Amino acid sequence: MTAQIEIIPCKVCGDKSSGVHYGVITCEGCKGFFRRSQSSVVNYQCPRNKNCVVDRVNRNRCQYCRLQKCLRLGMSRDAVKFGRMSKKQREKVEDEVRFHRAQLRAQSDSAPDSSVFDPPTQSTGDQILFSNGYTYSNDVGAYTSYYTGQTQIPPNSLGYDISADFVDSTTTYDPRPGREMDAIDESLMSGGVITLDPSQISELLSRTITDAHMRSIVYTLEDIHELFRKPHDLSRLLFYKNMAHEELWLDCAQKLTAIIQQVIEFAKMVPGFMKLSQDDQIVLLKSGSFELAIVRMSRFMDISHNCVLYGDTMLPQDAFFTSDTAEMKLVSCVFEVAKGIAELKLTETELALYAAIVLLSPDRSGLKGILETGRLNQAILRALRMELDRSHSLPIKGDVTVCDALLTKIPTLREISMLHMDTLGKIKRSAPHLEFPALHKELFSVDS
User: Which of 11, 332, 337, 354 has the fewest CB atoms within 10 Å, i.e. is most exposed?
Assistant: First the structure.
């Protein structure tokens, strides 16, 4: 029976199971975790919103949410006392074993060549972001070897290994809605015959990209609006206004790096992105990450007061004042575009689709997979238009639609990104001793 059960993935994280432990089919890792969690001194806390995804890759990120999932599934020390399974329980497990075997046979028979989330072609470039051997964590100076397969990622860190498939098929989340998504992937990436209705493709893309967005954000819109309503801390405002020029740059760089980590997490779950060559992934992230950060910043804009939620503080534009005119132009442009996007009152789905369009821009310098990226871009654009037709059907002014307004902002985002590189190069030349976060240095290398 144990050998049969092992065909069923771990109910908690989706890894290979090793049998029934504490009443639930789990892997050895989750069995050991639950055993350790029963210590009287354990007091886990969630660093996010108590809704973290628990899968094979993420299971060590949040001990609180992992334990809650164990308990929801029915894991209990008392279950050990019950010994053998009842006839009803055994029949249920046997049914599940048959189901998984049928699934494996179906996958074997269909033998798809690839899926949107297959590991990309390997490359020799950019070891920090994309090497097979290392994973990036919130501690920007820490790199943890991934080769041994034994290293535990700290629960309060986010691991990033672009060359690995971030989203594995698990019992909790599968970003590929069956074979339909595989068919879309093959059609969009290769230009083949699409058997699904275009509206079905758009619906699937909307769902998948929205899910990627929601999984890679820290605060929901409700959380952000709640923070807007809290009284402003004037002491924090004065703190930032009085911050030294170089310190302000470093603080902004650290905040930006945290957003970029979320952007990378999002990108890896966007259909088609992981199917591009690794070199093209690097090109798209290096050229588009700052633009995507601005798109995400729009969620944190309080347009009624022209303030941005910066960390845990509401800051106006003048809090980032410096005497350098180029820097002030950069700050002004970033605020203007972020506020402009916020004023369009996009849903999370619309913002996610827009971010994916900005990410998958086929005209990036150095991009080799132009056709594949272009097909993905156009498919996502159709999905965005369909979403906007539902909730933003009326034009903004004259015959200008919300979609028109969003698309006209893309060239502006490019200009701001170039302005950012120019001002960053200037600050690095004037203060070469400043030590920026490692991921920031890798993405925004002034030499590249």
Answer: 332
Is 359 in contact with 267 (CB distance < 8 Å)?
A: yes
Give the bridge partners for 154, in sequence order. none
Q: What is the DSSP letter of 60?
A: T
Q: What percent of the chain has pLDDT over 90?
A: 38
Report the 10 Å Cβ neighbour count for 304: 7
Secondary structure class of 156 (helix, strand, coil):
coil
Q: Which helix (H) or strand (E) holds 3?
A: helix 2-5
Q: Supply the pLDDT for residue 171.
A: 25
Give residue-wise pLDDT tens across range 214-224. 988 888 888 88
- Yes or no: say if 438 and 128 are a contact pair by the CB < 8 Å rule: yes
pLDDT at position 124 is: 34
Tell me which residue of 151, 154, 162, 127 sits closest to 138, measured CA to CA.
Answer: 154
Q: In the numeric block, which tokens belong to residue 314?
A: 């509401």
| DSSP bridge pairs for 25 | 20
Per the DSSP assignment, residues forming a β-bridge with 136 are 143, 160
pLDDT tens track for 86-111? 666 666 677 677 767 766 666 555 44
Least confident of 43-52, 254-263, 268-277: 43-52
All domains of the chain in start order, with CATH: 2-110 (3.30.50.10), 174-443 (1.10.565.10)
Q: What is the mean pLDDT of residues 239-265?
A: 91
The pTM (predicted TM-score) of the whole model is 0.62
- How many CA atoms, within 13 angstroms, populate the side-chain half-sphere of residue 317? 16
Let me know if 266 is exposed, middle or buried by CB neighbors in 10 A (0-12, 13-18, 19+): buried
CA 28 to chain centre: 28
Tokens of 19: 């049998």
In which residue are the tokens 């990627």 written?
Answer: 212
Phi, psi of 163 (to 5 degrees): -75, -15
CB 396 within 8 A of CB 213: no
Residue 393 CB: number of other CB atoms within 10 A?
Answer: 9
